[in-house]
């Protein structure tokens, strides 16, 4: 890894076509852990549309150059250097063969070719292929690949690569080979190989056109019993993409491989998806309902990339959201359809709420800090740092707005045109926008600003009712408020915002909607206003009574709405709004307002009190059996501490924690009998089912248990949690019971029951790495107190035999969980959390810069905290800046300190 103290800035404006193109690639691998030989034969030609270059410049990192031939003859004018290989004065069209060596066994970055658990794996996105062989490692260089793998048959009985298997057989000296061909042109970041001792769950299915396809989920032998759900999710994904978008699987086979050492969640390599085990392995004893849902979503996401990312890919990495934002939208729609089909809006809303919670807590925070960037960034130092919430989650919201504007049918027309125009090409976000616009006969020039402007837009709403004229005016004003400097630089003008609105009458029912100038009311009680000016007024006519507005229904755009609802109005919306998302939103607004008021009092030592009306509003939701359990669970969950701290003028995690815990205890004690009744009513006896309905019952029951653990006298909660832990037949209930025991113990100075459950959990699951990740995470995120700060527990766990800093999952389960998901403990006034953070970022930087950079982002918003905390964070950031060497981490900390 090179020291890049003065890294180069890559700018979108500087994009130039490659001087050379590569049409075909034939790779040969002799796989040996400490010295793998790679022979790479390419058909290279000059790009007629690019500027002339005498020399061919190939990227390469951590490679040992052996030799080169051009058209079969040795080529002496090849010069290896730190960043690649230069070939002087090459012909216009030629066959180039390069031989090089790499050391997968020592590759702790997990980028390129590496060894995990004695098996070979690859990760090439974004720039890992250059660690395998010298190449034009950029997404707009697309070629067809043939791959030959050779290895010891005993040590590596399974040899996999992209596409279709052409032949396989034995070789002398105990080795064997397999030869694969991918018939579709692809960029190098989609290359993959796997070799090792693996077994597969197999299924054969027929595509919509009647072609038989082989599906395989490859895992280590002891994990085969945990693959059924991943296979079912893959089959559901294939069927859904055929039905919703008319897109069929285009290869004879599709393979998923699980590996425990992986930087990301999964990777969509053409036909050979490589997954983190976390998103493949599941059975009721080891995986929670959340795990089952995440596996379905991630399997869907990577499969959907087969078209949105693989068949049509990115011209350059600035266009990353072209594939990621679009495919996140597709996986969100898939999960919503799996839960509620196209018509069950309440079930679909549960998924929508979950997605928006993540967006607000993480992406809105990103927009407010030094790493703020547009959905299509203008520059970067290290591309791995731009696999961000903005590119993925805000990018998906941008795609969703097309569907909101044009409807499902209009969106499908745009997708059809997009594939018709660009199948097999590397294109841009603008190409996608033009396809949607042309298919629907619209000018979307203004919509481009969603791609080029950073920051979270704010829409202020003012309303006026004219009873005599029965007119109701809604004035919308858009802007960005006090945006971060990194965001302000990009803002050029007003956005086209699809703003969905409904009007609710005194009886709680939706009113008819008729805009001024229309001849009759709309058939729908939700109207999407196309808000395209800095300020714009929309007037509804024939409004018989003053309504209460239901604003931004279904979260129709990624904006912050500013409207001065009273507490009574929010309680009314929580009780009556027909839009499930806005019903949840009203409760969150009510809780957020109260919690921020209490946090302000806690910060100044003023005694805390919770208004009875808030308790009453929560009681109505808790006892309303007409609402689905999954919706009630989400509605009764208080906003997170991290989100609340973000809403303060100066973030004060300790005050937020005090306020939130006060409200939880107040709701627990005031509604104790109701929580207990809900706990009893929503038990799920019998065999475990990973269905949305059963998951909803478990979620509500376990939320009730978590509130019961807050009682002044938690003896009954401890008894219930202990019994649930002992008798649980699934990980959802067992982990929830353990969490409740830990929280009850934190409030009461510890408990024998909690420690016994922790010890039993480890003994029971010590051979299940993903479950032990949960064991670490539960301890890292538990509530601490002055006598038992969590940092002490975390430091002790670092020395536990099961902890391994080199494994990203294990690092995330302990270090990331503490630093990112336990704000009150991480932001301790003594600065111990910051010192710990700095030590771990520095240690990880030397092993795996990508993982280190993600941890580094825990302090990027340091300027928004109270002065005492800011000083400790600055010291920690400066320590990291003075010691790390990777581009990945330096870009994060230098932007934070700038």
UniProtKB/TrEMBL annotation:
Q: Which reaction does it catalyse?
A: Release of an N-terminal amino acid, Xaa-|-Yaa- from a peptide, amide or arylamide. Xaa is preferably Ala, but may be most amino acids including Pro (slow action). When a terminal hydrophobic residue is followed by a prolyl residue, the two may be released as an intact Xaa-Pro dipeptide
Which of the seven top EC classes does this enzyme belong to? hydrolase
- GO-annotated biological processes: proteolysis
Documented EC number(s): 3.4.11.2
Report domain Peptidase M1 alanyl aminopeptidase C-terminal positions.
568-898
The Aminopeptidase N-like N-terminal domain is annotated at 88-190
Please give one Gene Ontology molecular function term for this protein: metallopeptidase activity
Keywords linked to the UniProt accession: Aminopeptidase, Hydrolase, Metal-binding, Metalloprotease, Protease, Zinc
**Keyword Hydrolase belongs to the record:** yes
- What's the name of the protein? Aminopeptidase N
Source species taxonomy: Bacteria, Pseudomonadati, Pseudomonadota, Betaproteobacteria, Burkholderiales
Gene encoding the protein: pepN
């Amino acid at each position: 890894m090179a020291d890049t103290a003065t890294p180069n800035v890559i700018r979108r404006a500087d994009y130039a076509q490659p001087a050379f193109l590569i049409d075909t690639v034939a790779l040969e691998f002799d796989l040996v852990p400490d010295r793998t030989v790679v022979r790479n034969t390419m058909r290279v030609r000059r790009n007629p549309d690019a500027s002339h270059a005498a020399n061919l410049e190939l990227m390469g990192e951590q490679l040992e150059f052996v030799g080169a031939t051009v058209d079969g003859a040795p080529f002496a004018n090849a010069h290896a250097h730190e960043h690649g290989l230069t070939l002087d004065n090459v012909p216009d069209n030629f066959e180039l063969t390069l031989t090089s060596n790499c050391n997968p066994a020592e590759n702790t970055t997990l980028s390129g070719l590496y060894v995990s658990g004695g098996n070979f794996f690859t990760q090439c996105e974004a720039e890992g292929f250059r660690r395998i062989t010298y190449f034009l490692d950029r997404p707009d260089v697309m070629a067809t690949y043939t791959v030959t793998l050779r290895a010891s048959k005993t040590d590596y009985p399974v040899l996999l690569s992209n596409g279709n298997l052409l032949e396989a057989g034995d070789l002398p000296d105990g080795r064997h080979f397999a030869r694969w061909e991918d018939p579709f042109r692809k960029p190098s970041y989609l290359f993959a190989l796997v070799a090792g001792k693996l077994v597969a769950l197999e299924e054969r299915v027929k595509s919509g056109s009647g072609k038989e396809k082989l599906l395989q989920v490859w895992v280590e032998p002891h994990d085969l019993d945990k693959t059924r759900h991943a296979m079912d999710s893959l089959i559901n994904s294939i069927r859904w993409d055929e039905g919703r978008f008319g897109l069929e699987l285009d290869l004879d086979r599709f393979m998923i491989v699980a590996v425990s050492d992986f930087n990301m969640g999964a990777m969509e390599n053409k036909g050979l998806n490589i997954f983190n085990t976390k998103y493949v392995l599941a059975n009721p004893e080891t995986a929670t309902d959340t795990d089952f849902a995440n596996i379905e979503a991630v399997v869907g996401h990577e499969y959907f990339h087969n078209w949105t990312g693989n068949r049509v890919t990115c011209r350059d990495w600035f266009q990353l959201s072209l594939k990621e934002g679009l495919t996140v939208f597709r996986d969100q729609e898939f999960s919503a359809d799996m839960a509620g089909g196209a018509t069950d809006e309440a079930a679909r809303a549960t998924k929508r709420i979950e997605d928006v919670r993540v967006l607000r807590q993480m992406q809105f925070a990103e927009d407010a800090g030094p790493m703020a960037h547009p959905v299509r960034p203008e520059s970067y130092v290290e591309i791995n740092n731009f696999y961000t919430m903005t590119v993925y989650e805000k990018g998906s919201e941008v795609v969703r707005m097309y569907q909101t504007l044009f409807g499902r049918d209009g969106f499908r027309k745009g997708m059809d045109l997009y594939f018709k125009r660009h199948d097999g090409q590397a294109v841009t976000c603008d190409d996608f926008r033009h396809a949607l616009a042309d298919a629907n006969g619209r000018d979307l020039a203004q919509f481009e600003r969603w791609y080029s402007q950073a920051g979270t837009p704010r829409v202020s709403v003012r309303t006026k009712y004219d009873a005599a004229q029965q007119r109701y005016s809604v004035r919308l004003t858009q802007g960005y408020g006090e945006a971060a400097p990194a965001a302000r630089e990009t803002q050029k003008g007003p956005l086209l915002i699809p703003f969905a609105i409904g009007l609710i009458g005194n009886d709680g029912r939706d009113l008819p909607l008729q805009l001024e100038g229309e001849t009759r009311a709309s058939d729908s009680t939700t109207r999407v206003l196309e808000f395209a000016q800095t300020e714009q007024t929309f007037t509804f006519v024939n409004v018989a009574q003053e309504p209460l507005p239901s604003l931004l229904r279904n979260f129709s755009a990624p904006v912050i709405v500013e409207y001065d609802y009273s507490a009574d109005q929010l309680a009314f919306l929580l009780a009556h709004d027909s839009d499930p998302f806005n019903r949840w939103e009203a409760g969150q607004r009510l809780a957020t307002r109260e919690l921020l008021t209490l946090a302000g009092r806690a910060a100044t030592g003023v005694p805390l009190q919770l208004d009875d009306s808030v308790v009453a509003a929560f009681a109505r939701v808790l006892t309303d059996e007409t609402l689905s359990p999954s919706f009630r669970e989400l509605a009764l969950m208080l906003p997170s501490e991290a989100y609340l701290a973000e809403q303060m003028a100066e973030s004060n995690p300790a005050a937020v924690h005090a306020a939130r815990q006060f409200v939880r205890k107040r709701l627990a004690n005031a509604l104790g009998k109701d929580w207990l009744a809900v706990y009893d009513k929503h038990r799920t006896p019998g065999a475990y089912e990973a269905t949305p309905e059963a998951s909803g019952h478990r979620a509500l029951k376990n939320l009730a248990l978590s509130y019961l653990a807050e009682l002044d006298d938690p003896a009954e909660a401890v008894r219930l949690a202990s019994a649930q832990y002992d008798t649980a037949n699934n990980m959802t209930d067992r982990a929830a019971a353990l969490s409740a025991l830990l929280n009850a113990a934190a409030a009461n100075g510890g408990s024998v029951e909690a420690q016994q459950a922790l010890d039993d959990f480890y003994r029971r699951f010590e051979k299940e790495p993903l479950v032990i990740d949960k064991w670490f995470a539960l301890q890292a995120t538990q509530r601490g107190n002055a006598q038992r700060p969590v940092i002490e527990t975390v430091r002790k766990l670092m020395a536990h035999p099961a902890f391994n800093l080199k494994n990203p999952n294990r690092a995330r389960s302990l270090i990331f969980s503490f630093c990112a998901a336990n704000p009150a403990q991480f932001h301790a006034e003594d600065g111990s959390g910051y010192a710990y953070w700095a030590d771990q970022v520095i240690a990880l930087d030397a092993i795996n810069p990508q993982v280190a950079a993600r941890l580094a982002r825990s302090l990027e918003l340091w300027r928004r905290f109270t002065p005492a905390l800011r000083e400790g964070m600055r010291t920690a950031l400066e320590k990291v800046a003075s010691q790390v060497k990777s581009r990945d981490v330096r870009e994060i900390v230098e932007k934070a300190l700038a």
